[in-house]
């Protein structure tokens, strides 16, 4: 291959820029031309394709978001959209494509691969909801953002002796809530993978209160439901005054952590190596700190799972 392309798709995640940088630099290191496609798959259809050079990715390793921008494209979910995408790539002589994004983006990459156009996926989403990799790019940064926010909420929670319910992102996955809950010593963690009885949560809050605890933190993953509804239910079942904070998009922004930058650099470089060695329809990943390769088709079929021992531990530590 002499020309390859790169795009970012779906929700942006901190560390995507570090991955773009790694892909661009690694391609150039191998004397391969690299083209950036702006605005995800929609930009591919619309021919937002530009050649990148070493300087295109200077001074971006520390920046959140994605310099290639991202988009959600309904057009690309249809066969005509995908055909158009392949035509555009071929028009520029681009022989392979690297897609950074979540599972939706991987479906797009898989569709192109099935049409005979080689694609490699790099997992980039704060949700950490992709099978075949212990971590996705952006998860560690989002986790640290959540922790910082909770630490601040804790100050006001203890001053006013209140119970706070904090809703975090993660779509259908509970990773962000689980890790944040453990890192912040939350009283309860509500995640979609494990149904906690409301009574158990209330009992734990009351036990804390009885031993003089000044505040309580409950972390709720967005996949479980609405934090305001839970606050209402807790109030109905106890006399506890609750406050709700929905952290929202703050979790998607910010400068990537060292862990995310390193992960992005490793996965980005691996993706280029895979494409140049003739692989197609593969995802790069990391398991037990070793780089791994999986078929995208398999990754999409397999369900991402959380580490239930961590959930159990969080309960044991917040008795
Ligand atoms: P995040 O997890 O951050 O939301 P994601 O990659 O899962 O990221 P999606 O919105 O699900 O985000 O998908 C991103 C884009 O991938 C879609 O807008 C669409 O262009 C493309 N895509 C998703 N599903 C398909 C599909 N079945 N076929 C072709 N393209 C798809």
Automatic annotation (TrEMBL):
One of its GO terms (biological process) is canonical glycolysis. It is an enzyme of class 2 (transferase). Its main location: cytoplasm. Mg(2+) binds at residue 103. Coiled coil: none annotated. It comes from the Bacteria. Keywords: Allosteric enzyme, ATP-binding, Cytoplasm, Glycolysis, Kinase, Magnesium, Metal-binding, Nucleotide-binding, Transferase. Residues 3-275 form the Phosphofructokinase domain. ATP binds at residues 11, 72-73, 102-105. One of its GO terms (cellular component) is 6-phosphofructokinase complex. GO terms for molecular function: 6-phosphofructokinase activity; AMP binding; ATP binding; fructose-6-phosphate binding; identical protein binding; metal ion binding; monosaccharide binding. The active site is at residue 127. Its EC number is 2.7.1.11. It is found in: Cytoplasm. It catalyses: beta-D-fructose 6-phosphate + ATP = beta-D-fructose 1,6-bisphosphate + ADP + H(+). Pathway: Carbohydrate degradation; glycolysis; D-glyceraldehyde 3-phosphate and glycerone phosphate from D-glucose: step 3/4. Allosterically activated by ADP and other diphosphonucleosides, and allosterically inhibited by phosphoenolpyruvate. Substrate binds at residues 125-127, 162, 169-171, 222, 243, 249-252. ADP binds at residues 21-25, 154, 185-187, 211, 213-215. Homotetramer. NCBIfam families: PFKA_ATP, PRK03202.1. PANTHER family: ATP-DEPENDENT 6-PHOSPHOFRUCTOKINASE, PHOSPHOFRUCTOKINASE. HAMAP family: Phosphofructokinase_I_B1. This is ATP-dependent 6-phosphofructokinase.
